[in-house]
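Researcher: First entry.
Model:
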Amino acid sequence: MNPGGVALKQRSNPAGVDLMRNSGIEAVKPIPFFGGQKISKRLPYFRGNGLEPESRALIRLVHESFFEVKDAILPILDLHSGFGTIDNVWWPYAYTKYSCPDTSLYQNIEKHLKHHCGHIHFQYGPQSETYTTHGDLWDKLYDQYRNYHKNSLNWNSKLLPLTLEVGTWSDLREDPSKLFRKRGIFNPASFNKIETIGRYRGFLRDFIRLGLMKPKDLK
């Protein structure tokens, strides 16, 4: 999604745009600054002045890969790290506290992952329960998918983007120097990074298996 940012070891892309704030969607009462800003690309969370090439590439990939798939659950997982002391599994919306149309289906996914698969140590819910942001690309794609099929007769596939937000603040007590390192609070501490990453293998395995289910299986 952001190879240039990875190469430069920065959150934004090489143009200084935060791709997680770049979709153009205006949030309702976003958290100030952190929720996206248009002051300057030299500051974090810059929204940009249009879709960046990376954003356009992601949107094109999702359209080509998922928009015509019939009779399927289409779960997409975006992996993030850095917010909070607990792990969150978020679904739309990020831009508003209004419930998304598939809230009941997302809640059934939550029940499946918690009670059938045993993933009880995550906090599930829409991102907006935690904070609201401008420009979420998955909000944009979720609404585009629904609008694309709103007049399709007997269409029952569901595009279901989720975000696994890995909480990396819980080890601040063991490694308080993270507060003073660039990107320190956004990454697992070096002394237990392998262990931290390994904790999510079971969740990722069971998430992939969601793609084998049919919409009726989660009703």
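Researcher: Second entry.
Model:
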Amino acid sequence: KLEADMLEVKASKEQALQGLQQQRQLNTDLELRATELSKQLEMEKETVSNTKLDLQKKSEALENTKQMLTKQEEEKTMLKQEIENLSQDAKMQHKELNDRIQTAVTELQKVKVEKDSLVAELSAAKEKLSKVSDSLKNSKSEFEKENQKGKAVILDLEKTCKELKHQLQVRTESLHKEQNEMKKSLEKEKETSHQLKLELSSMQGQVIQAQDSLKQKEKEEQQLQSNINELKQLTEQKKKQIETLQGEVKIAVSQKTELENKLQQQSMQAAQELAAEKQKISVLQNTYEKSQENLKQLQSDFYGKESELLATRQDLKSVEEKLSLAQEDLISNRNQIGNQNKLIQELKTTKTTLEQDLAKKEQQLKEQNKALQDMQKEKSLKEKELVNEKSKLAETEEVKCRQEKEIAKLSEELKSHKQESIKEITNLKDAKQLLIQQKLELQGKVDSLKATLEQEKKTQQMLKEQMKKEEDELKKEFMEKEAKLHSEIKEKEVGMKKHEENGAKLTMQITALNENLGTIKKEWQSSQRRVSELEKQTDDLRGEIAVLEATVQNNQDERRALLERCLKGEGEIEKLQTKVLELQRKLDNTTAAVQELGRENQSLQIKHTQALTRKWAEDSEVQNCMACGKGFSVTVRRHHCRQCGNIFCAECSAKNALTPSSKKPVRVCDGCFNDLQG
């Protein structure tokens, strides 16, 4: 009976704890709803700002906001009702607990009085047995009466024990449900941690890819620098060749005046080509400097990203350590459950270990709750870190796109330079042919210039050979670049295959983890069965009357703790009420803002109706410009404004602007242009 009373008191304690947990859950739900309301209000503000562009959308958005406000007011009333119901339920539970504790105390006092009376009667019976044998008959009859009374009391106690057993079964079932929920939440957190690991691994892969792309870009820039140096060398060679040609032209000018004019023209063309080449070289130098600046920026971004990567890796290590600690805690919890099963078996022999085991279980439950809360906090922090890392990755991708665009521009410039060099080669060839023709014409006239002409032919052949060499080198470079591009494509395909293989491995690991979860669930069910069997065995054990004195003190301590928790719950309810008042103030502020937006919408609708009511003016009705008053004639033409429909002269309607009814800029008067721009 005493153990049953103990179990009843502990069950009442657990019920009170469950009630407090439910209140906390309701409080968290209220906070979540409050955050949702704030998010909804922010979304409404964004929709109202967008409605300034489209008047029709604005009216629909206002209707939606009104509906949302009505819903929020309804939810607000529902929240108030729920808070009042929670406070009433808490008060009722508090009263019921006090009543139960008082009844238990009164029953204990009655049992003590009965015990004292029985002990006194037994001592008197022993004295009577020692003194007088005749008084045995009387004492036997009295003893039988007392036995009957005791049996009746025992029957009552058995009935109460059965009722308490039923209550205990109900409470144990609720405890099992809570344990299941706790395990489900732990499994969910494990899954989220696994997902976080996968996402972090993918982020690391993306960062590695970004590093590889940066290295490739550095190589391409080095190649561009080498190409620029080669172009510089070519320009120097061309300068030397042009100088030699100018010397030869001067000699030819001194001999023949007719040749002077032609050679001067050719020298002028060569000077122009030199100036153009100098300009090209300056442009190339500017692009080279810009590319170097971009390289420096990329290097700085790369070093910053490397530091961020190190920080994320350190965070990953800390997260993995925390996960390993959590797994160790889970293993220790399982070991503790096994120890608890052993301790329950030892309850048959010792009663004092029962109280110690119960205290240990309560502490473990508290620790698990704390661990769960810590895990949830860590989960939220990890999610925030993931969001930050995703934003950083997006920034790196943007930088990568910019660099690729710059490389494409440089490649286009290289192509244009190649084309220009090819054009210059063709021009030089044409010039050579012209010179050959001139030489053939002059051979009959001037015999003294044959030696000089032969020298010029030799120089032209040298130039041809050099140009061929340059063309071959350019072709080789082009082929090498194509080979590099093909190799890079192959490497990317190999990387994609590796990613697919890793995905298959991960799916296999997930299936293995699911199988392990199934085995763990089976083991947990078998442990639950053992616990139920042990609980039945503990129910069969009936305690002695002496344990009641110790249990009364424990019950009083528990009662004090429950009272303190109830007071804490009332304080939390008051805090929630203050939060609700703050939310009401925020709602009032948002309603005022929505009313202001409605007024703005009305003013915009008035402007819209004014714009719709405007008519297209007829040419026959208007004889003068409606802005400056200039008269229309054959030279002064009429022009309609596509916004207001009025007729203006060309000067007053010279501006173009975008209107709601047109996709392209349209002719508009000065007044409508200012309105549209404002």
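Model: Note on the second entry: Helices lie at 2-50, 55-131, 135-255, 257-346, 352-445, 450-540, 547-613, 670-677.
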